[in-house]
Amino acid sequence: MTKENVVVLKQEFERIKKMGYVKSTRRGFTGIGKTFEDLLGKHEDSLENPDYRGIEIKTKRGYSNAYTTLFCATPQGKSEFEIKRLCNRYGYPDKELKDKKVLATSVQANCVTPVTSRYLFKLWIDYEKQRIYLKICDRNMNLLENDVYWEFEAIQEKLERKLSFLAFIKAWPKFIDGIEHYQYYDIKFYQLKSFDEFLKLIEMGIIRVTFKIGVFRQGTREGEIHDRGTGFEIKESDLPKLFDRIYV
């Protein structure tokens, strides 16, 4: 990717910024990103490649302090469907479908995360085996299992392919006639530092892993597991620790 592509996206952003509040093209939390991509003329796809000319685009509401998902990666383990096994073994009842289990939690390497009243989750990096592990203990810190992991090679490939260059865009939301609109007002460009820095930030607890395992509550798939993705996440304020700023 050349600086020329950054300049092109900056020009496109300035064009969209001048449009003021634009109507969301999708309801819900993902509307902010989908609307911007539609304004760029980008067609929606399921490919895990950068969004625009080799640049990954992340969007965020101006007031939000929420973590940003860098990418999603399903872990490996002793089961072919490891996410389902984790949910069935360590999950808790859904609020509506009490006989079905869900598992929504964020895990870091610098502290333990309680999951229900029985379990503790923690990330651990094994440089010898080249893996990021999910350690699961009981409340007395007795190890229950260390079977869930992500391979360095797979994570590095995904990180460098998708996030070598990043555009972080912010917008103000506003409801007009009951429909959400967005005014895109800020863009910053970044270049990935290295995979080693990524691992260091995991060890420090700055990058976390969030499981979003729910259940379909209606329709033909009611009662089935609904995996919304296992995301590696970071705060906006910590982006400069993983990326170098590109000024245009």
Any overview of this molecule?
The two termini are about 15 Å apart. The protein is an alpha+beta fold. β4 and β5 (about 100-105) form a beta hairpin. It has helices spanning about 5-15, 30-40, 80-90, 150-165, 195-205, 240, and strands at about 20-25, 55-60, 70, 90-95, 100-105, 115, 120-125, 130-140, 145-150, 165-175, 180-190, 210-215, 225-235, 245. It contains six helices and 14 strands.
Based on helices, strands and strand pairing, what is the structural class? alpha+beta
Return residue spans where pLDDT drops below 50 for at least 5 consecutive residues. none
Indicate the CATH architecture of the largest domain.
2-Layer Sandwich
| Main pleated-sheet profile | 5 strands, mixed
**In CATH's first tier, which class of the largest domain applies?**
Alpha Beta
Q: Approximately how much helix is present in the residues?
A: 10-25%
Assess the beta-strand content as a share of residues.
35-45%
Shape: globular
> Helix segment count?
6
Number of domains: 2
Order of helices and strands: HEHEEHEEEEEEHEEHEEHE
- Give the integer mean of the pLDDT values: 93
What is the CA–CA distance across the termini? 14 Å
Number of DSSP strand runs: 14
Looking at CATH, the homologous superfamily of the largest domain is MvaI/BcnI restriction endonuclease, recognition domain
